[in-house]
Amino acid sequence: MSQNTDFIPFARPLLGPEEEEAAVRVMRSGWMTTGAEALAFEREFAAFVGSPRALAVNSATSGLHLALEALGVGPGDTVITSPYTFTSSAAVARHLGAELRFCDVAPGSYNMDPRALGEALGSAKNCKAVILPHIGGLPARTAEIKALADRYGCALVEDAAHAFPSATGDGYAGTLGRVGVYSFYATKTITTGEGGMVVTADEELAARMSRMRMHGIDREVWDRYTSKKAAWAYQVTEAGFKYNLPDILAAIGRVQLRRAADFLAMRRAIAARYDAAFAGVPGFVLPPRGEGHAWHLYALRLDEEALGVGRDEFIERMAALGVGCSVHFIPLHIMPYYAERYGLKPEDFPEAYAMYRASVSLPIWQGMDEARTEKVVRAALAAAAPSSGTGTARSAGAADRP
User: Fold this and answer.
1) Which end of the chain, N or C, is less surrounded by CB atoms within 10 Å?
2) pLDDT tens digits, residue range 185-209?
3) Are residues 284 and 242 in the same domain?
4) CA dist list (Å): 329 to 248, 297, 397
């Protein structure tokens, strides 16, 4: 295959003059760290998703850590999550001295299986929280999972890093549990480069997380320097963290938030074009779909037997054709740390492992024009050829329902 220098990256943010002006405004204000812009971003984000409280943080990982700490997770406790997620979803439990319990994804799905969760909850010791990732932007079966968590006295923490804006009939993904955490990392559906947001309707949890994200100080730190009154005194009431979001990033986030609906429409259009191109192609399995899909990822599954080409070779062929792809995710139970600590084998979570072995994430990002989309389509069809066997692509829509 010939090389193509017009390379399409797997992900790319869409930033324009408004974001530039917002950043410059903060630079010229003389105030660079957390302040009025971050507070405004919190109010606007809370209003967008319909949550009483929103707290801006420097990453979704920080937000998950704050959530578990505020819930009292610690040594002797268990936290349950899916192995089909980024390491942050699990690592935050270990940061607090708690142990992990994984439960498999549903067949044909990237999201947690309520049946597997029920089994895990029934045998877990001192389960304090369930961390529920919404993979790829498709809301998980949240109502079922929340009912199970409630039955066993566990707090539901939604890892909504992929799921913005994911609106369902019950509300936005991320607002349906005790705490929800969003990511504004560079590849996400809106971005601040690095950053995140925590939402909750629980005022006690909000107060705890607000205090702990800024060193455990008992008041907002930024107004010590902007108040006209002598306001230098403060108290450190806890050994907190440094998890605040700077104003320069919050200002960019406020602009991105106003563009969120347009960004979602762009991603949906790309996903629809891929669906149209790949439906009926032997060896291609379309991504799961359902209500509120934000299309953070377009994860195509490959039937190696039908295609005659494996997933890894397919990605190499795509790169040679000028298209960057990725894999979401390498399951945590096959990562050395978790595998060794908990004595896990790939076959322990067969659904997650099978999805990983077959899946490839294609480029899907706002600002990706029709010409680029068509190039990805052509490359994917070429990378899959020659195809062996017969069959048609199918959608796994029944696997995931909010």
Assistant:
1) N
2) 999 999 999 999 999 999 999 999 9
3) no
4) 31, 11, 19
314 and 244, same structural domain? no
Task: Check residue 394 and give its pLDDT.
Answer: 47
- The DSSP bridge pattern shows strands 284-285 and 78-81 to be unpaired
Question: What is the model's pTM?
Answer: 0.94
pLDDT tens per residue, range 81-113 = 999 999 999 999 999 999 999 999 999 999 999
User: Terminus-to-terminus CA distance in the chain, angstroms?
Assistant: 42
Question: In this predicted structure, what is the pLDDT of residue 247?
Answer: 97
The DSSP output letter for 219 is S
Which residues are within 8 A (CB) of 135 and not within 5 positions of it... i.e. 6 or more apart? Answer: 82, 84, 85, 110, 111, 162, 297, 328, 329
Report how many helices (DSSP H) and strands (DSSP E) the chain contains, helices first: 15, 12
* Half-sphere exposure in the Cβ direction for 63 (13 Å, CA): 30
Q: What are the φ and ψ backbone dihedral angles of 44, each rounded to 5 degrees?
A: -70, -40
| CA angle, 130 then 161 then 114, to 5° | 35
Please give the Cα distance from 121 to 92 (Å, whole number): 19
Q: Is residue 381 part of a domain?
A: yes
Catalytic residues: 188
Question: What pLDDT is attached to residue 219?
Answer: 78
Q: Which domain holds residue 368?
A: 261-399
Same-domain check for residues 21 and 78? yes
Helix/strand/coil for 350: helix
What CATH number corresponds to the domain at position 314? 3.90.1150.10
Torsion of CA 201, 205, 211, 216, to 10 degrees: -170
Distance between CA 85 and CA 338 in Å, rounded? 13
Residues 230 and 270 occupy one common structural domain: no
